[in-house]
Amino acid sequence: MIPSTGHKVAWLLTGSAIALATLGGVLAYAADSSENDLRDLYVGFDGQPATFDGQTRKRYDDLLDEGHRYEHLSWAAFGLAGAAGAAAAALFVIAGGGSERAPAARVTPVVTTTGAGVAVRF
Length: 122
What we know:
The chain is mainly α and about 120 residues long. The chain is about 65% helix and about 10% strand.
């Protein structure tokens, strides 16, 4: 059986979701590493705190900015992974068993006076 276009796209989205979740994990680890570097800067070498001067302040600010950047990028990667996973699941359901059968689900947009969304009927 040849996979339908919907299944092909769903598999691409599944792979993308896995890749984005992995990227999110790596970025979260990098943010944690940056936090550890910041902690090391605070403790200093040989248990002695670092001398606070302009160079230490710049290093502190750079590490703080780097940690926030990695944290926000990891959130974005996890969010995109969730969206890709949800889209893949929806496509697998909609595509059903392929071209031999009718779609297993019907997705219909719904708009009311209080909101909008989609309805899925099996």
